[in-house]
Amino acid sequence: MIPTPAELETLREAGRIASKARNWAAETIKPGFLLRDLQEGMETMIRDAGALPSFPAQTSRNTVAAHYCSSPSDETVFEENDLVKIDVGAHIDGLIVDTGVSADLSEDQRWSGMIQAASDALDAVIDMCAPNVDVEDIGERVEQVINTAGFRPIMNLTGHGLGHYTLHDTPQIPNARIGLKGSLEAGSIFAIEPFVTSGRGYIKDNGKPEVFMLAHSPKPSNKIDSDSLDAIESWKGLPIARRYFNDLPRKPFERTLKELVKQGVLREYPPLVEIIGHHVGWKEHSIWLGPNGPEVLTA
């Protein structure tokens, strides 16, 4: 997406809102705090500031790299020694930013090396962002920085372009040289997110999905509740969570979700875990590639 000047100002405002929510979560998180409360706290801050979440806020712990989103009844708490990825985004009228940091809940800061490697890799590739830079060159630099720190990047997770009501747009921006095609376009908006691990560097789906995205309109069905479908469609194809719809009757809503998944129009995003059970660190910023170079919208 190439924003107009007015859209760019809106993106900057969305970036300030998302960054404030991210920073609040990083300062508030502690052992014993409910994951759901931290996620919902970020979302409330975003709404109160005049924006909406561009996806459900997530807090993925330890070996879970991404996509841990609490159910409406989730009573899981953060524990001492957790390594937590705080992932949050905001949008205003479909203009999206995406950001996140890792938090080390150990007293001895045992995950600091992994967190620093992700931060250093992100800084290194932001500095090299310029028109026509190949995304594979970015991935190669991410891997170099992470390997130098003694870790591996996650090979099958990538950064991404940001579009209008499109969270994952082109191009994909890898964390290593993996054979992707694409380059950075002058004036575009994108997110870069190095993932770092001491494991093999690959993730897999594992667990119950609590993040969903309506990709297409469904076929008519008596199993679809009209109020539930209207509420889901109001998010205009952005990712959603069950907890967004606590005001709807539960049985008709769950029946609707099940039918939409069965029809193949509602995508499910389960938690993503490192394949041999090693911890994962991470950091993410959204960037505008302007005439004076890269501008971090979520600093």
What does this structure look like?
The protein is α+β, with helices and mostly antiparallel strands and 299 residues long. It folds into two domains: 228 residues, Alpha-Beta Complex (Creatine Amidinohydrolase), CATH 3.90.230; 59 residues, Arc Repressor Mutant, subunit A (Orthogonal Bundle). The chain contains six helices and 18 strands. It has a five-stranded antiparallel β-sheet. Strands 1, 2, 4 and 5 form a four-stranded antiparallel β-sheet that branches. Strands 3-15-11 form a three-stranded antiparallel β-sheet, with no helix packed on it. A hairpin with a 2-residue loop joins strand 7 and strand 8. The longest helix has 24 residues. It is globular. The protein starts with a helix and ends with a strand. The relative contact order is 0.18.
